[in-house]
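Limitations

Structures in this collection are predictions, not experimental determinations, and the ligand pose is part of the prediction. Treat each record accordingly. The example that follows, with zinc ion as the small molecule, is included so readers can see exactly what is and is not provided: the inputs are given verbatim, and the output is the predicted complex.
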Amino acid sequence: MPQIKQLVLTPRSSFLRIKCPKCGMERIVFSNSKRKIYCEGCGELLVIPTGGKAIINSQEIKKVD
Ligand SMILES: [Zn+2]
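Predicted complex:
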């Protein structure tokens, strides 16, 4: 059985579809964002950069292929 390389299938950074917890507006963000990202609908802070993987303020997070 050939071994599947996990790194190829799950890169460290990816695009995520998230949903604002306040107004429900969806948007696509980068998981390793270096900038704060605010909701375009209500101004809620959605993505908080940490230097590595960003903190996502969303109840729903879906990976975008
Ligand atoms: Zn919002």
